[in-house]
Protein: Sulfite oxidase
Amino acid sequence: MLPPPTVALFICGVGEHYVAGESRRRRCLPSKNLFGILWGFLPHPHSSVLPFISSSPSFTSSSLSIHSQLQAQKMPGIRAPSNYSEEPSRHPSLKINAKEPFNAEPPRQALVSSYVTPTEFFYKRNHGPIPVVDDIERYCVSVKGLIEKPKELFMKDILDLPKYNVTATLQCAGNRRTAMSKTRTVRGVGWDISALGNAIWGGAKLADVLELVGIPKLTSTTPAGGKHVEFVSIDRCKEEKGGPYKASIPLSQATNPEADVLLAYEMNGETLNRDHGYPLRVVVPGVIGARSVKWLDSINIDSQECQGFFMQKDYKMFPPSVNWDNINWSTRRPQMDFPVQSAICSLEDVNIGMKGKIAIKGYAVSGGGRGIERVDISVDGGKTWMEASRYQKPGIEYIADEERSDKWAWVLFEAEADVHSNAVIVAKAVDTAANVQPENVEDIWNLRGILNTSWHRVHVQVRHSSL
Structure:
């Protein structure tokens, strides 16, 4: 029995240039066992007729090899390179923390130069070579799993949905890891304070996308038992043993329009670039960046959260007592919302020769859509405090939780201090739920060095003239 006519994949002898049952001629690809796999039209890039081929009495590993080659030819317009020879160009001022895969952050002063982080200064977090789009017309995302209407969506399908712009800060869970490693050694990319950025993301709401496959808004469980939405990338990484990067969020969050989860195709008003997920990525506001999967390949509706490496054996918060000898990953849930955070960007860790009035500028942000209620500044190591001014959009007063404020985005803060002797300048933020940054990094140390939200301290060393 032949496969469906629209598939038009057949096995034929070498040298034959016809297809049984069709008048049109077809090219036949020969194989070593005198059989070839004939390639015709596919209804979509993910179609598979391997079960039909393998049932042939003449099917061999040689046939499978040819099938694999054809599968590679019909990949959905995007591919994951096996090496780093096709990497995009990056801004020369980025601080490179790892070259392959490429992980870099901007100078801290660049973060407070504007409310919206320029794309070239947005931190780059990668786990493998950057995928390459060969044919955007063939690119599609499969939506499948515990649903009644699995579907494959091309970019046209996504673009036909209502477009939303969401201003949201993405932050790597390892932001400020370098400072934590000074307490005790941790594992991971050595980030300073700039592994985050604030962008305007444009795209379709995931809640609208899931309606296309029969999942209504505000659904927590599908009739078939789906409770989680897993995002699978084209990206390949060593942690997954060469498999794809993946992560998940609860279905209740994915189907809630107020959660603003996007399938984004724009960043700061322009088409996504390759580093940031072109042609399509997930943006999960208020959650650590590891859940905002780039280079989206498929969406799976499952009964359990993603079982991938970065959900089950990474990005979990352990107490200081846990080390690599006694760790039990199953005792902690995957980290989702990021805690309240702030950092001073106008000053380096150590500043020599400064004296008089000093501008203190930085960012503050909290996860889960919580606004920033207050940013406190101290110039004596935390003995006394003053409140910094906060703002988002220039000329518009920032009031946390007001509709005109961007609930998923950071606030920038400013203060001025008169410094005439050596000083330790400190910043700490308080969010609208009264969560406050912990004073000491030792209290939140963890073996993976994530979520360092301790008070941020910089040192000013004043030089007095000898004259």
Q: What stands out?
A: Residues 60 and 240 are 29 Å apart (CA to CA). The longest strand covers residues 196-205. Confidence is low (pLDDT under 50) at residues 1-74. The helical segments are 50-54, 61-73, 108-111, 155-159, 177-181, 206-211, 251-254, 309-312.
